[in-house]
Oxidase FUB9
Amino acid sequence: MSNLEVLSIAELEAAAMEKMDKMTREYYNSGSDREITLRDNLAAFDRYRLRPRVLKDVSRIDTSTQLWGKKISFPLCIAPAAMAKLAHPSGEVGISRAAANAGVAVGLSSFSTSSMEDVVAQGAGAIDYAIQLYVFQNRKTSEVLVRRAERAGFKAVFLTVDTPYLGRRINEVRNRFKLPPHLQLLNFENPGDVAVYSENETKAHGGDKGKPPAAGAGVDSILPQGNVNDASLNWETDIQWLRSITKLEIWVKGILTAEDTLLAVQHGVDGIIISNHGGRQLDGVTSTLDALPECVAAAAGRIPVHIDGGIRRGTDIFKALALGADCCWVGRIPLWGLAYDGQAGVELALKLLYEEFKLCMSLAGCKSVKEISRDHLIRVKTDGTLARL
Ligand SMILES: Cc1cc2nc3c(=O)[nH]c(=O)nc-3n(C[C@H](O)[C@H](O)[C@H](O)COP(=O)(O)O)c2cc1C
Ligand SMILES: CCCCC(=O)C(=O)O
């Protein structure tokens, strides 16, 4: 496989699989429980076909769009995903360099294995960054992180709201997920913020294979007891709390309904990301593409609506835009790129997606992203017949 030329994201995924150890591969790729949502995120895109228009002079195509007042080369950015150095030593820095070369924005996980300052430095002002935020029981941990991101030049906070508790990913428990000792979570400053367990403590935390694993023996074992995600997070007080500690744009990541879209608008958030955490949280929730139309209708143009989950091809980006998304984000693909060939692998992934998207726009008769509309799609019903939107 590794000797073959990688010509699609599917081939990149296959090539990356050979490069990762079992713990990393399964941590990156899996979803929660039966993985119904993980699979449906991808399948949803196949429930639409394209309705191309012809004779539209597509000799010049503009794939670009705007995000945070800056041009991005096409509507596809890099979603925050934890611990990229499990894939490759260049980690989030490699991803950031690739994104800067491709002209797209980056979301950085709270749990990155490169420091936020190092990551932002790679963009040299050419691209923008969002810091993804987990709100911990010790709010000070989150506050310090946000203030540091503001100083480092991030443009937005992505408040992840689908994780009051982490979903149950069987692989993490079975593989006794643990951050290898040579890696560190570099966005945390105080020793008690994240847990670095000794061998004995790891056992006490569920690492003893002879015994059933303790609750929280998955990836959340990197958090110390007493400072896990704050499950009391709520609309009534916490957008306001976040607003009181930062001037950055506040985006809510993890919305799947019109009701929550309306609440996001009412609470003055700057944008939302339709997301189910890549099928890693509540299994059985709707695919993000299926959730998108009701959220777009509820937002009614008042705030930008972005989407992540299951995007693997240029045509997927096109379909999400046709259903009203302003921009798409990818989580696993950059990790696969990194595992395959470091920064160059991420660049390859972004190039493939860019070229596929551009070709799709051309062949569907769209000269600019603004021209992509619901009229370019038709839905495949369960009985196989087609229905206009
Ligand atoms: C290995 C991995 C780690 C992730 N870590 C985070 C994280 O730290 N914070 C967060 O908000 N989302 C996290 N996500 C979710 C992504 O931001 C995104 O929602 C998801 O990956 C999109 O689905 P896709 O992988 O199909 O593109 C993670 C996803 C993966 C696969
Ligand atoms: C405690 C780390 C959580 C990372 C994450 O969000 C994920 O694995 O999906």
